Please model this.
Amino acid sequence: MDHTDVDVHDVAKMIDHSLLRPELTTRDLLEGCALAARYDVASVCVKPVDVARAAKELSDTGVLVGTVVGFPHGASLTAVKVAEARAALADGAHELDMVLCIGRLRGGEDDTVAEDIHAVVQAAREARALVKVIFENAYLTTDEKIRACRLSDQAGADYVKTSTGFAPSGATVEDIRLMRANVPPRMKVKAAGGVRTLDLLLEMVEAGASRFGATATAAILDDLAARRAAAP
Model:
């Protein structure tokens, strides 16, 4: 996809500005929310402890608040994931990025994985919130990624997502193509982990991604604005 084919606002609305690093302070959170509002991105993705503050900061903007569930390893009990989801929704979250149970998937315990996802989806539906299922592709085979797509669909999730950003590797164009090919049209694909340039983002749009987790939000959008301004 060429940069001349896309509008800065349209790309901004594909970005979940990520504020998940463990060392972030409240000041960092507030600065991140201000940046997200300035660029009018789709959402901020914050730690559960920061949801209420982010929701307050962004209440008068078009930026949604998302958070993570079972992050980053997906190994919490399902009941804990549901409790975490409900608490985040009560605090003002609109989107939940949950990590599936990676070890159970790798071990072939598909029913357990589907039930875990479905429980969070059910909690989200009560608040009309979206659920994105994080696979953590760095640890999965092609077959496991395909099974994760099928199970996420079966459980009623809205998105499949490549990575937490905390594993040895993140999103790849090949994984985006694979995931897009193995979920139905109603489901969307989110790329996260290593999406730091406009060119990579646009390549992943072509491959089938429609949402991106990013920390390099300003650099990506400023680059697009500069290219469009310089275009004949």
Remarks:
- The chain has a mean pLDDT of 97.
- The chain is about 45% helix and 15% strand.
- Strands lie at 15-19, 43-46, 64-69, 95-99, 130-134, 159-161, 188-192, 211-214.
